[in-house]
TrEMBL record:
HTH luxR-type domain: residues covered: 870-935
Protein name in UniProt: AAA-ATPase
Domain of life of the organism encoding this protein: Bacteria
Protein species of origin: Amycolatopsis camponoti
CDD domains the record matches: LuxR_C_like
Record InterPro entries: AAA_16, P-loop_NTPase, Sig_transdc_resp-reg_C-effctor, Tscrpt_reg_LuxR_C, WH-like_DNA-bd_sf
GO CC, alphabetical: cytoplasm
Amino acid sequence: MFEDVWAAATAGSRQVVFVGGEPGAGKSRLLVEVATTLYQHGATVLAGTCIADLGLPYQPFTEPIEAILSALASQEVPGGAGELQLAERLMALTGRGDRSVTKQPEHHRELYDAALDAFRAVAAAGPLVLTLDDLHWAGEPALQLVAYLVERTADCPILLLATHRTTDTDRAPSFAKTITPLYRLSGVRRLDLAPLTVDDIANYLVREADVPTRQARQLAVVLREQTGGNPFFLRELWRDLTTRSGSAAVDPANLVAPESVRDTFRIRLDRLAVDARRVLEVAAVLGDTFETAILLAANESGADVVLTALDDAVALGVIEHEGGAAEAFRFPHSLARQAVLDLTSPSRRMLAHARMADVIERRFPAADRRVQRLAHHYAAAQALGLAEKAVHYLSAAARQADRMLAHADAAGLFDRAATLSADATERDDLRLAAARSYFLGADFARARELDEHVSTTGEPGARVRAAIGYESAAFRDGRPGHRAVELLTAGLRSMKHDPTDAAYVRALASFGRALSYSGRLDEADSVLDEAVALARALDDDGLLAAVLQANVTAIRVPSLQRRVTFDRATELCDIAKRSHSVYDLGPAALFRGLDAYTLGEPGALSAAKADLRRAASLTGQEHFDYLAECVDYGQHFIAGNFGSAERTCASLREFGVSLGKDTEGSNGLQMYMIRRETGALEKIRSLITGDEDPAERWPPGLLALYTELELTKPTARLLHWLLDDDLPSYHDTSQWPGVLTFMVEAALFLKDEATARRLRPLMAEFAGINLITGEFNALFGSADRYLGSIDSLLGVGTPEECFTSALQLDIRTGAPIHQAQTLAASITHERRRGARTPAQEEIERAQALAERFGLTRVRRLLESPAGSPRPPLPDGLTAREMTVLALVADGLSNRQIADRLVISENTAANHVRSILLKTGSANRTQAAIYAAARGLVT
């Protein structure tokens, strides 16, 4: 397999192999053998590993990047014009960045792109092999970097080999979440190492131990049973057996093996003197790999005892020299080190940790991973009165991780420090720091949990900060605002109401947003307006940005406040760009885009999409790219580009899977909106009984489906079920405009005047603006169209004025689909009021739009029995052929017609041939002239 993989990599196609297996399965050895072989064939090899103890963020990339930094310094790897900046970013990623002289990165993307550029530069000089060992011990930021590199190096001559344990107890949840989606990519493979078979073991004995073939087979059967086929256990067991008896003297009939690796090493340790065994126990506490100098300093037995113990341990195979040097040693496998630790009493381990921490702190200021090691050792020895030291170094390690943008790692460290702190104020501060890091790492649930705890039990000064944090995390997680209102109310009562205090103003803005998500919209508007005024008075861009963000993300009274929120979102975008605060830019751009659609400003909508792309590029947060794709879907939909809209839907669904988002509901609604306009819902009519249980589905969507399929009784049943039982649950959500619209459509279909009358005041709240659900999941056009249709049904008001207003907004929005829908609604009204011949110009415009964009739903409304019969089509052309003819006249190819109408290219070609035959046209140009001469196209 590796020959094929390497051939593909050298041909310029990035290859990845994730090698999995249980501890001791031979993963690391396979990695070394493959990398060594490829190195001998001219490949550049960069190797990194993870450690079980507290390591640096982004391990296992530290070692490969350190090697690249050295190569950059010696000009072995060209860094290009941005070499200095690249080196600074790489130093920041390894934790060596000097904050006093280098501009620290502000976003993950800067670090990830630096790593990407570095590995690409190495690969440009020749095929690169990157090995990442024990990836199951990597933190979430490092795993995200793995995914980032894999997804963006498809065209590079790179082979990435990574090992990981497949045992559940050894793998963090983030491993599966981040790595599993990569298997869908081209060139990514998984290789799980199975236990050795009897034949494998027999071959090993013949090849490695010169055991005669017949005896090897007998021994292999017993060894397979004794070791379970674990390669490491087999090797160590065979070593013990041959040390005692010699390979030729091993008798299969009398072979009795220790039950585990731990027992194997216990037997060896028993051969050491007591002092020597104590040395090995301290070494195991020090790590898988340990420095001789630190071990000497940490042992009080004297250098002779320590060095003799090391020599004896090497002879017994308990440890081995690191890289052939005497300056450092290593355990042959993490299982070996764990075996020694398991055989050491907890009290001796704790004392060893304390001694190690003291020695490293006092005598080794330049030790590798010094802060992380001190945090690890002091935390393990905190029961000896060293908790204060543990808190200090855990906090220092957390701050370093935060500086490196490894927020998930930092959060865990702050959290752990808080549990060890004896000081109440410090404990609150650490919990708030942990909550902030969890928030930045998108673990909103844990952030909310910590903030709520501090807000209810913490010191008075911390409570309001915690309440603000809780509200932010609750909002990001899409939760109602009632609990946040409670916490912020208590927090605001505990502090002085000082309009010049930035903390008070921030709390006020947070309180306003929480009120809005509790359904108290009028109160929310008042509080949010006050917070904006106070922030402007303080002339602090950072404060104003925070307050504006609370404003634009709050739920506001629809029609009255859309212009206000749009203006504030635009202002926030400007501040974010000016201050390079792209974490503000993303949310601001989203809400600016939503308001741009509702207000009918297509230029601002495109600008918002560009800002979302920029936020994604600078922060590395693909969620902003996802939102930009949502805007893209909306623009395609209202423009009638249904083929492009459907392709965007497919892309969004894949995007959602890769981000770990549940986007099935959003995707389903987006596809439904396309299919109902193009008449594709007929394909599923046979699957709908009308007796579906709304509790098992999204009831508003089911209602919309019943309405479109004209299922009268099911529509009435579900409409009144929503009105009577479930309506309040939707009112304060981003789904509400869509839910309301689907109910109005159902009432209009049923001609249910009582329900229409009940719903009109709710729809009137949106007068003058477009209706949209969620993150561009469903775009309905002007609320005035629906108000006009309701008034037409009820015989009240001035529906004509509503339709005129709606059409003006449709045109301003640049939405021909909405124009056709409004014209059809206006024509339906004219027919209802008894006009024998509705405005012919309106009919012709609506028909032209319906034919041009394949709007089956609009065509159905125009052909309603309530109105005049539609004039016959010329020369026997069908309605679908008229649609195709309009697109031919626009110059579209068969492929483009197929994309527009969501049909196959072959079907499009058949329609064109039929049109040419019926119209007597010799070619497409004559067909276009035919259409223009008869006024069939505009």
